Amino acid sequence: MAQSGFRLNRLKAGTGSISLVLCLLFASATLPAPPAHAEADPTFNVPARPLAAALSQVADQAGVQIVFVGAEVRDHISHSVSGAMSTKAALQWAAGKDYEVVRSGDAYVIRRRAKTLARHIPAPIPAAQADSAPEEVIVTARMSALSRTRLDSSYAVTRLTTNTIQMSGSLSAADLLRAVPGLWVESSGGEASNNIRARGIPRDGFSSLAVFEDGLPVQHDPGLGYLNADQSFRIDDTLQAVEVVRGGPASVFASNALAGLINLIPREAPSQPETRLRLQAGDGNYRRMDFWTGAPVGDWRVVTGGFYRADDGLRPTGYTADRGGQWRLTAQRDWEHIKLSLDYKQLDDSVAFYLPVPLQLTIGGEIKPVPGFDALYGTLAGPDTAAVKMIDAKGQTYPFDLKRGTEVRLDQYTVKLRYELNDRLTLNESLRWRRSSTWRNGLFPGYPNTASEKLKAYLPAAQAIYPQAVRLGLSYADGTRLADDGQAIDATLSSVRIPLTELINDTRLEGQADGHHFTAGFYVAEVNMSMQRLTATTLLEVRNQARRLDIVAYDAMGNPLGTITQDGITRYGAQFDNYSGTERSIALYGTDEWTFGKWRADIGIRLEQLKLAADVEQGQAFQGADAFHISDDAILGGTGQFVHLSREFDGQTLSLGLTRPLDEQTQIYGRITRTQYLPNLTDMTSPPADDLHTEPVTLSEFGFKHATPASDMHIVAFSTAFSAYRVTDNVFDATTNAYSQRAAYGDTLTVGVEVEGLWCARRDRTGPDLALSATWQQPRFENLRYTELVNGAAVARDFSGNRLLRVPDLMIRLTPGYGFAHGRGRIETTVEYYGDRFADAANTARLPAYTTLSVAFRYDLTPRLTFILTGDNLGQTLGLTEGNPRAGQIVSGDADATYFAARPIFGRSFRAALSFRM
């Protein structure tokens, strides 16, 4: 049996080191060239040296991944490799006849044959082996230091490689995750600030999925208000892979990882100079460059990379929608028993935040765009709303800049140390400090309707200013007259600023004793953040890049008396927030894994204490000095008085797993996990917060896994029971231009089945193949009952048995592909089906099912140059991912409305990429 632990192949082999080694040497930024074309081209120059180092150098010079077991190559000397030959031949020549080299997907596996000597000079290259090779080792949420492949992991996990990421053509992290079963992904918001709901947990943003980068959180709490975890990172070519754990033991290793854990795995620094470059262009004037380069510098290995991108958006705004990039620098060094990694990452990026658009419901029940608005490519945001002067409660002017969108300025420093104490114990120390400043400037739509209906609510206020007013009309904010028989929509111009610093430390001891493989860890996080919000409501025309409208009062003779709104603003200060606070989290966690007979069992425990403290400025409505406009009649602002809030919460997680192989290619497993959602600063400072508490979650799953060299099938039956789930409403009132908050609590239960499979006609994926990702589930409220006042009378509401918010019953993703030209080329199409959903707990606002079609094409022009073309939503499907949350998530105000707002997916688009490897 292999010993616990793993280490990278540059680590020198010592007799006291832990034996299992994972050596993943940088997946190419493009799909690797096929054996018949690319493996004959590399020229090698590797002297005789310790075998682990020699194999690493061969892999670096060929630009491939390799996997081997450290104990099997320790104390072995390689044969020198020189000249042009295939990659497999070079690896085999370096290793010698006592080892076999087999290919598994994009990787080569080197393993020792039975009964070999401790040291050996290699013999001539043997014939190619035809047997299968193990899958790549999973590094996320492992219950012990033993390496586990996807097949023998005791939970559901999906690994997305560099090749998969590039062929997907995804514009955002959320977009990429559509390939993972069990996840309902709303990627229609742009490159950041999207929503993911996993296994029937109906929480917004990323609040049920932890996001890690290289084993540490990119953000301790992934679900802070206006600060989703996907705002803190971008997918680029510095990543080697993305692993997604669904359910399982994720909550043992991370806070609030209720439904799973996403781990971004960066490329390791190479032992030989290497450079990769990728250029992209596409619709929306999309331009992007990714780069990655690394080389040894003395005893260190150094790598740097990142991207820069600019575009006008897939929903053109009339200005640059997305501009910025990400950059990182990593230095790594290995000693006899120590591995040290220093990493710095900077994110400086601004991206548009796309929100619902106006739509109409026909008499026949069909959803269509409203006349004059393009639902596939249109947005209300435009030059007229890009720069607006707001007035705060003190009468001071505040410049609102919509062009900033979601703007993130982030610096992240990471130190990781791995120290092999002896052949049974390894200490891992990981430290991350982050400082960021985030702006969330957005245009949040309200209710579209005819202009005449919109104006009715404003007549009493107009008559209070102009007693002779008998009717109202509209004009553009620049004074241009507008016909009054069109449509108008309310909108909120919202500006939110969130500075944040956090310090995260994770200390983990891995070891083995008496047949048990264990992990013991201590996790600490301190988060300091503040939040300031200022908003104003406006009235807009219904058209692409809408313009602001003023309300004009007319007398009985039709003479204009004046405007009752100012510069298109119906109310300054519709919302106000100002607070600063701290989250302190301390957690102890541990796992143990052991075998008995053919069974493998594991247990994981996490004990966590969370302390929240915040100083919240009290707000009130202030009357402005302008008697001729309603815009400043009730400006919400701060009083200068702060209230100190503090709460403490305790969390416990227990995860039990049981696994049994049926044969070398088949495994079954079962797992049950009990955890809970812990509130955060946003929950504590956002009304109503009077009854804040933890929300227990119980997850269970039973899985069947089968893998052969040419096929793969994972089937998982799961259930998720969520107790005391808090449904919150932040509803916009178009009459008062104000927001009201309320909450209801209920229990939910979701049962379902996930299927993930791959079939290939040939092992090397030349010829036809078929990939499948599917989820069937029944997400329901077990009970949701509350009482509300309607016209002064108490009315009981009971939504028990209703479907959960925005979670479909059925999701299917089918990808047939074909490899040709001896593997140099590949084409694939993806058909996705998403069942209907409801935008509210009352199940009154239905979002219809929809189907999309996309395509991807790749061709290796040379061994070092690859072309990729991707196209999305080829059929121009009007698929709605969400309704309008500001219409109400308990009972939607858009139910059965002729005109309403919802957020569709983007229209048809294409992107092309050219990748170089040097």
Automatic annotation (TrEMBL):
Residues 554-874 form the TonB-dependent receptor-like beta-barrel domain. Its main location: membrane. InterPro entries: Beta-barrel_TonB, Beta-barrel_TonB_sf, Plug_dom, Plug_dom_sf, TonB-dep_rcpt-like. Residues 1-38 form the signal peptide. The keyword NADP does not apply. The keyword Ion transport applies. Keywords: Cell outer membrane, Ion transport, Iron, Iron transport, Membrane, Signal, TonB box, Transmembrane, Transmembrane beta strand, Transport. GO terms for cellular component: cell outer membrane. Residues 151-260 form the TonB-dependent receptor plug domain. It is found in: Cell outer membrane. It is a multi-pass membrane protein. GO terms for molecular function: siderophore uptake transmembrane transporter activity. This is Secretin/TonB short N-terminal domain-containing protein.
